[in-house]
Amino acid sequence: MPFWPIADRTMLTNQVASRRSSSTARSVDADDMALIERVMAQDKGALAALYREYHRRLVRFLGRFTRRDDVIEEVINDTFLIVWQKASEFRGQARVSTWLMGIAYRVTLKALRQGGLSHEPLHGEHDERASEPFADHELADWVAKGLMRLSPEHRLVLELAYVMGHSLEEIAEITTAPVSTVKARMFHARVKLRNVMPGLAGFAGDES
């Protein structure tokens, strides 16, 4: 039996788990919207509450782009500065979490262009940010090595979908790409991952 489907099942398990608590998600969305409305009114306490709620999640996300904690914190601080300055521009067409991730992604791209980040993502077996979504550390390391073989664009869409639980529409919002482009990247990323996983486990595989 080929070993590569395990990676797909692992990712699918994380995706399903992230979607199960829909009522909880709706409650979080309502709470977040209330915080954004307070930020619009220049309530610094509300901004601090958003920061506490999303800091850990943003650290995990940004750890895909750099291993430097100081750069991660700088990007997060810049992200919340933009939230403070532009909260009034939020129209509620996306979830607050998606909006925040999109801002962080664009700040990250700017840092990459300016040379502030290395393009080497953080996927070490001893790093909490990389292994946290998976219960089995050995399997997590295997999947992480497979993801490292993908292009940054392909790796990002898989992690946003299967590790962080975002929908296609949310990924499109975060990456400022059309949904059709996200679908295409997802398809090609899965094909590539299936091809490289057997070789990483010591079995023959097609990496073309």
Automatic annotation (TrEMBL):
<dbReference type="InterPro" id="IPR036388">
    <property type="entry name" value="WH-like_DNA-bd_sf"/>
</dbReference>
<dbReference type="Pfam" id="PF04542">
    <property type="entry name" value="Sigma70_r2"/>
</dbReference>
<keyword id="KW-0804">Transcription</keyword>
<keyword id="KW-0731">Sigma factor</keyword>
<keyword id="KW-0805">Transcription regulation</keyword>
<dbReference type="InterPro" id="IPR007630">
    <property type="entry name" value="RNA_pol_sigma70_r4"/>
</dbReference>
<keyword id="KW-0238">DNA-binding</keyword>
<dbReference type="InterPro" id="IPR013325">
    <property type="entry name" value="RNA_pol_sigma_r2"/>
</dbReference>
<feature type="domain" description="RNA polymerase sigma-70 region 2">
    <location>
        <begin position="50"/>
        <end position="114"/>
    </location>
</feature>
<dbReference type="InterPro" id="IPR013324">
    <property type="entry name" value="RNA_pol_sigma_r3/r4-like"/>
</dbReference>
<dbReference type="InterPro" id="IPR007627">
    <property type="entry name" value="RNA_pol_sigma70_r2"/>
</dbReference>
<dbReference type="GO" id="GO:0016987">
    <property type="term" value="F:sigma factor activity"/>
</dbReference>
<feature type="domain" description="RNA polymerase sigma-70 region 4">
    <location>
        <begin position="147"/>
        <end position="195"/>
    </location>
</feature>
<dbReference type="GO" id="GO:0006352">
    <property type="term" value="P:DNA-templated transcription initiation"/>
</dbReference>
<dbReference type="InterPro" id="IPR014284">
    <property type="entry name" value="RNA_pol_sigma-70_dom"/>
</dbReference>
<comment type="similarity">
    <text>Belongs to the sigma-70 factor family. ECF subfamily.</text>
</comment>
<dbReference type="Pfam" id="PF04545">
    <property type="entry name" value="Sigma70_r4"/>
</dbReference>
<dbReference type="GO" id="GO:0003677">
    <property type="term" value="F:DNA binding"/>
</dbReference>
<dbReference type="InterPro" id="IPR039425">
    <property type="entry name" value="RNA_pol_sigma-70-like"/>
</dbReference>
<protein>
    <submittedName>
        <fullName>RNA polymerase sigma-70 factor, ECF subfamily</fullName>
    </submittedName>
</protein>
